[in-house]
Amino acid sequence: MSKRTEQVAELLLQEINKVLVRDFEAPLGTFVSVSVTTVAPDLKNATAYLSIMPNNKIGTVLEAVRKFTPHIQRIVNKTLKMRFVPRINWEIDERDLKYAIIDEALAK
Fold first, then answer.
1. How far is Cα 97 from Cα 85, in angstroms, rounded to an integer?
2. With the C-alpha atoms ordered 106, 49, 18, 2, is the resulting torsion angle positive or negative?
3. More exposed terminus of the chain, fewer Cβ within 10 Å: N or C?
4. What is the pLDDT of residues 47-97, one digit of tens each?
5. Structural domain spans, the chain
6. What is the pLDDT of residue 69?
């Protein structure tokens, strides 16, 4: 990644997390945050990797975040001082799932 894409990815990470904390109403008993963002070299698309706890709520929370995307995109577009703000796509951060499997195995 170039320095510019790294800077944009870091800004997106901060701004998306701010919007999630401030405006997103996660289902009761869940925690949602963006752990990593990656930005395409042309700065047109970005992928935000979601960390969702507990793991059994991933499907419902991911669906809720996807429905909330237009609001997040609108706020990020207003906040970032860029000509073109990358379009946000969502993925689940697989590292959390792997950590949960390891923790479960260690607990036995």
1. 30
2. positive
3. C
4. 999 999 888 889 999 999 999 999 999 999 999 988 899 999 999 998 877
5. 3-107
6. 97
Peptide bond into 70 cis (omega under 30): no
Helix (H, G, I), strand (E, B) or coil at 84: coil
Counting runs of H as helices and runs of E as strands, what totals does the chain give?
3, 3
Cα(33)–Cα(6) distance, integer angstroms? 19
Environment class of 68 (CB within 10 Å of its CB; exposed 0-12, middle 13-18, buried 19+): middle
Give whole-number Cα distances, 51 to 11, 28, 71, 85, in Å.
18, 16, 19, 23
Residue 2 has which token pair? 């170039």
Which residues are CB-contacts of 92 (< 8 A; sequence separation ≥ 6)?
49, 50, 52, 58, 62
Class in CATH terms, 3-107: alpha beta
